[in-house]
Amino acid sequence: MTTEIPYYGLRAYALFFSKHTTEQEFGQSDLDWIVSESMKKKIFSLLVRAGWIVKTSRDRYRCRSPAEVFKHLLEFRVPQVIREAKRPYAFTGLSAVEIWSDYSYVQRSFERSPYFIKVLKKDLDYWKNFFSKKRIPSYTKKGTTIGEYVILIAVSKLDYKEISSFKVEPLPVTIKYAKENPMYKYAYEYMREKYGK
């Protein structure tokens, strides 16, 4: 898994890859005389944490290939990271349809992958910070970007069921939502048949 990095990290990665490709190991000494000691540590920490380089021993590193790095930038990470959350939430709308229908309807693509999540109003700042720390773009009510992002819908009260270790809006609400849009007809029929609703 890789995450986006700031410009200074991108330039450091470019330097390492230009000098060593993915074949040769290198050390932090590559940045001697270029940046301060504290900045050097910051750069290496960033690149390892973001998955752009890998640590091969105590003080040696190797670049991951640009093809691998950029491919993994578009991976779907929300399902994995949301399990770390400490506040309640509920997948809603199309995201709930996906989960309840066992992914018979999927709204994801590398180009555009929105997740719709209801959260308590009082927890909105927590969720914005949570996704920001994970480097996943999030918006309130509406928004869009390339790749994966989250639409946070702040509510006063939250109702959910646990399905496949996710908190999801209840089935009757999800079925009603799917029924109202002909695009989700297959998912609607699938849920009706599976759950007998």
The largest beta-sheet arranges its strands as: 3-4-6-5
Weakly predicted, low-confidence segments = none
| Straight-line N-to-C gap | 39 Å
The overall number of domains is: 2
Q: What's the Cα radius of gyration?
A: 21 Å
Tell me the strand percentage band.
15-25%
Number of DSSP helical runs: 8
Would you tell me the structural class of the helices and strands?
Answer: alpha/beta
Global mean pLDDT: 92
* Overall 3D shape: elongated
The helix-strand sequence is HHEEHHEHEHEEEEHH
Which percent bin holds the helix content?
25-40%
The tally of beta strands, per DSSP, is 8
Describe the structure.
With 197 residues, the chain is α/β, with parallel strands linked by helices. The chain folds into 2 domains: 7-72, Arc Repressor Mutant, subunit A (Orthogonal Bundle); 75-195, no CATH class. 39% of the residues lie in helices and 20% in strands. It has a 4-stranded mixed sheet. Strands 1-2 form a two-stranded antiparallel ribbon. A two-stranded antiparallel sheet has the order 7-8. 26% of the residues are buried.
